[in-house]
Write a structure and sequence with these properties.
Strand order of the largest sheet: 1-2
Largest sheet: 2 strands, antiparallel
Strand content: under 5%
Structural class: mainly alpha
Shape: globular
């Protein structure tokens, strides 16, 4: 199995659980935030999906596109499906040797980072926000939550 396939296999259980959480969010809760200083649910979901997508596009030497502009009313679950498909499509363009190529992310991180490291950072970032989203969804009143990873 290639390193790219291994990465996809390591991301997929987390993305599956994230998408399951997102499907539980009713539109009336898009503005919900568990504390006054928390990010609103819709913003947290968009940020999480868009960051992984952006890092995948950059790793594949593609410029990120804004799939859902500010104010778009596409339901979050549909956005998650689109971002998931587009993220995986970008990752699948990579060959194993591409993972070692330096990607210019100086504007974000002040340096160049190997594509594989950028993808790992994206996964770690997504896992972090997925954990936050578990708290949000529980605070919305859901008690039957998905597992931390989807098999």
């Amino acid at each position: 199995m290639s390193k790219v396939e291994q990465f996809i296999n390591s991301l997929s259980p987390h993305r599956g659980a994230l998408n399951d959480l997102i499907e539980m969010i009713d539109e009336k809760n898009y503005a919900f935030k568990p504390t006054p200083t928390s990010m609103e649910t819709e913003k947290l979901v968009n940020h999480t999906l868009k960051t992984t997508y952006t890092f995948a596009r950059l790793a594949a030497k593609q410029s990120p596109e804004d799939l859902f502009p500010e104010g778009d009313d596409t339901p979050l679950a549909e956005r998650a499906r689109v971002y998931t498909d587009e993220t995986y499509a970008s990752i699948k363009l990579l060959e194993d040797e591409d993972l070692d190529e330096l990607i210019d992310v100086k504007k974000m991180f002040g340096s160049e980072i190997p594509a594989g490291k950028l993808l790992e950072m994206a996964k770690d970032h997504e896992i972090h926000h997925k954990g936050q989203l578990f708290v949000y969804v529980r605070e919305m009143g859901h008690t039957d939550l998905p597992s931390f990873v989807k098999k």
